[in-house]
Design brief:
The complex is a heterodimer of chains A (140) and B (159). Helix content of chain A is 49%, strand content 15%. By secondary structure, chain A is an alpha/beta fold. In chain A, strands 2-1-3-4 form a 4-stranded parallel β-sheet, with helices on both faces. Helix content of chain B is 24%, strand content 35%. Classes of the chains: A alpha/beta (140), B alpha+beta (159). The A-B interface holds A 19-20, 70-71, 93, 96-97, 100 and B 60, 62-63, 85, 111, 114.
């Protein structure tokens, strides 16, 4: 990334008890903890809803990638309402349409299909992070 | 453009188009107007799709698979299966006949079911075997609207 202080903010769905929300969060964790930890920062949607100053500052100062669990698109809407810019919005349903072989089921214990879908989605998000960061590879 | 009966329950508003018939599962049937005199050309063609209530209750559609053209169905046979974020839902045909056209949008953009259930989100056209007989077994818009009201209020109580 050109500006070393800037990180891509990842904002997943906050839907607890929803399969697609769980896929969204699992994908976000994988990106921020495993795939691109140096280039990304996870921001909880609930903090934006509560108006947390640090969370609002993070989305206001950095490009955001949102991962929505349903068509309400709460993550995308909250980033925009918090003064941020959504560089790319992902929807779990669209990801499932691209990867039909990975059927997500379960909530606390995501099915194997759900885990694979989360991984596939995480890879797609990581690719966008690379584009936004201006470097084309994995974190060292 | 059809007119609608509208029901608001909690934060949801359900519309029932008044120009068509419904089975109790929420699949609508709309007979196409033929330009040919009665008895000439093909039989009555009936377009089918999901009611607004059924699509909202089922959730966002990920995939829709409709029986292919040429399939002959009896009344109540499964004509399509939709996979939504909540469940897989089998849809019974509201009439007997042969599938003569399938909405190609179902393969690429099945979300149109959620966006325009009474319009571009139609599923198929069926050439009716005996439309008059099947229509008599379906609910008119007022009766289906009453059923929607009953089912929506039941679901609200479960919360």
């Amino acid at each position: 990334m050109n500006d070393p202080r800037r990180k891509v903010v990842i904002v997943p769905c906050s839907g607890i008890g929803k399969t697609y929300g769980t896929v969204s969060r699992e994908a976000a964790y994988e990106v921020t903890e495993d795939l691109r930890p140096a280039d990304t920062q996870l921001v909880a949607l609930s903090l934006l809803v509560l108006g947390d100053e640090d969370a609002r500052a993070a989305v206001a100062d950095n490009p955001a990638v949102t991962i929505d669990g349903c068509k309400l698109a709460c993550a995308t809407r909250m980033v925009e309402e918090s003064g941020g810019t959504v560089a790319q919005d992902f929807a779990v349903l669209d990801a499932y349409r691209r990867h039909r072989q990975f059927k997500p089921q379960g909530i606390a214990d995501l099915s194997e299909g759900g885990q694979k879908l989360a991984h596939a989605l995480a890879e797609e998000v990581a690719a966008v992070v690379d584009d936004l960061s201006g470097d084309g590879g994995e974190d060292a | 453009m059809p007119e609608f009966l509208e029901l608001t329950v909690d934060k949801f508003t359900f519309r029932t188009a008044t120009d068509r018939y419904y089975n109790s599962e929420g699949v609508w049937a709309l007979a196409e107007v033929s330009s040919l005199p009665l008895g000439e050309g093909p039989g009555v063609r009936v377009r089918i799709g999901l009611s607004d209530f059924l699509q909202q209750r089922s959730g966002d559609v990920a995939f829709a698979e409709v029986m292919s053209e040429g399939t002959v169905l009896a009344f109540g046979d499964e004509v399509a299966v939709i996979e939504t974020i909540k469940a897989e839902v089998g849809l019974p045909s509201p009439l007997a006949g042969e599938v003569v056209e399938v909405n190609q949008a179902m393969e690429i953009t099945p979300e149109v079911i959620n966006q325009e259930p009474y319009g571009e989100g139609w599923l198929a056209v069926i050439e009716a075997e005996d439309w008059e007989a099947d229509r008599a077994r379906l609910l008119d818009p007022q009766d289906y609207f009453a059923l929607v009201k009953e089912q929506a209020e039941e679901e609200l109580k479960k919360r």
